[in-house]
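Summary for the lay section of the report: proteins are chains of building blocks that fold into shapes. Here we show the chain for DUF4338 domain-containing protein and then a coded description of the shape we predicted for it.
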Amino acid sequence: MSRQAQNNWVVLSPPLPERSPAKQAFRAHAASLSKLLSEECDGENFDEALKRLLRVHTADEHDAALRAALCVLTDLARQRWSIRVNEERGVEVKRPAENQLDPLREKARIRAQELIKRDEQLREPAARRFIKGMEQKSFHNGNLVSIYSVIRDGRELAESLRAARALKGEDRVRALREVINPYLQFVDGAEYCEHTGLRLQDIWRYFRHTWTNQYTATPGRSMAFLIRDRAREYHPVIGIGSLGSPIVQIRERDAWIGWQPEAFLEFASESPSAELGIWLHKTVETAIGEIYLDDFFEEELLSPLDLRTPTPEVLRDLSAFGENQRELHHRLASSKDLKRSTKRDDTGSTDAHWKARARTHLYRSKRALSLVDMLRSRMVLQQHLSSPPTSEEVRALLNTSDGRRIVKNILRKAKADRVGIAMADITVCGSVAPYNLILGGKLVSMLAASPEVVTAYRNKYLAQESEIASSMAGRPIIRRSELVFLGTTSLYGIGSSQYNRLRMPAERIGGKKGEKLAFLELGKSDAYGTSQFSSDTVRALVSLVQQSSNGQRVNSIFGEGVSPKLRKIRDGLDALKLPTDVLLQHGRQRIVYGVPVVRNLREFLLGMDNEPEYCFDLNEPERSTGEIGRWWTERWLRNRIESDDVLARIEQHTLVRPIRHGARVVLPNIDDGQATLFEEFTY
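The coded shape description reads as follows.
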């Protein structure tokens, strides 16, 4: 979709009867929102006005289409889309003109919207009880402690930094290492802080609530960590971080890695080789070998002979079977039927569990359709490549339309096998006050890609059975957890001071001279997703789809496909006959960053190379963490403390009551003077 098309007025015409009360309510709501937007109010007042208007115009709670349409329109107003009512065309909307917005104003707009959602979460009774419980003092090892025990007082830190600033050269660096001495601590739900007795998970969660955006759990793999400061009593928290399963499709990242289909085909055509042919064969044979087939043989969907020499008829029957099983899944499955638990028998084996999972409608469908792809690939490879293949045969294969098509399929399979285990997204990364004022975020960012984190990730998932692969195979499948690439994005589209110019010599942590461990800017995202839609809107859209005659249930089951939330919203917008692709473009372009930690990135991710070539030493991970801390002190900290203004701002973060500190969670609707005075210190 072109940018010009994105910035045009778009008609919203939900299927509401002409001249009906519902149609009139929709137009009236649009007119009210247009008037409200022209008044340019902001913050909580604006959000409350939106909620009030929504209540006014939702006269009939039982009209699912009207309710969903009004919720969508309200969310667009919240995102500052322009709204107008045209007498002839009806309700029209237009996204904010990004290229006309002042970057700082746009950042403030996004920040205000995120804070509204975060504060909504902090108004929930459970969240408030958690925050107050963490701030309540209790005894541990004879001392009164609370979450404040692991928050550093800014006055003491500023005083210590001034004393170090009086020194020069290496003396200053050594003094600063005594003021701030960082180390990594990995968060496990069952582990407690030895200094305070608080659960590590609770400490991490408390500080996460100080971020601008709301705290949400992420599906798939995850690993959280704290950066602590052993230089002071109770080891205060410098920052927090978390890795999570990566987003499968990011165009900018995939183009940079070189595994976008067209880019890969261009590479393969320019450099056809026998090794490439061997890789194609190996990927297909491994994929077929990891598909459970017993039930297919039992039901005579195919025979061992069909497996070796597939025919078009067999592929056609398997495709029809797969589609039928997918239909049955959507009609009959529920989330509890496929909950992510691995049950072992008396011998400790999980074979029976995975075999039962493989025989569900969802995985019978996935297995049949995957088998069709791989058997079709096998047919084409058998036609063009001998064993072993030659580079000329590979060249001839790539010159055919069938050859190029199956290479794309094989590439997609190879990517799927590695993207969730060899890559991770940095989902949380930042420092807390007062360390944020001395560029602590850069320290946390670099430690997120450190040898110690890579090693901890490997150890955590060393023996984990892959959920989808094991369900496809009907037996335990364990993928090697060698983390080779980390990705992340900026919250705002104007760049991230935390990641910009962030690179350190890999030689300092066991790498080769001249190599760097760096956050690389890979491009800007397409600003496509679901973050612009509120929970109320998602519920309204789901309700609408479920009430429709041909509604297809989205079960939120891991392995079912792309994001359940995305599918729910897409199905609902389609049911409203709204321009889905336009509305899913949320207009928040973000900068995509990548951190490769191996030299042979593409080759390892595709399975061409069996071993990753790390650009640092994994044998002494804790020593590397210390070296990263020293590098941060030399590169960033010792210069940052030259600013009197920075030290003065650090001093404002005091733990003397009344506590006025940027690392404290400020609960909304509590008039203690913090929300205004210290708003700049929350993330």
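Put simply, here is one thing we learned. The chain has three domains: 3-100+528-583, 116-248+423-526+591-681, 251-419.
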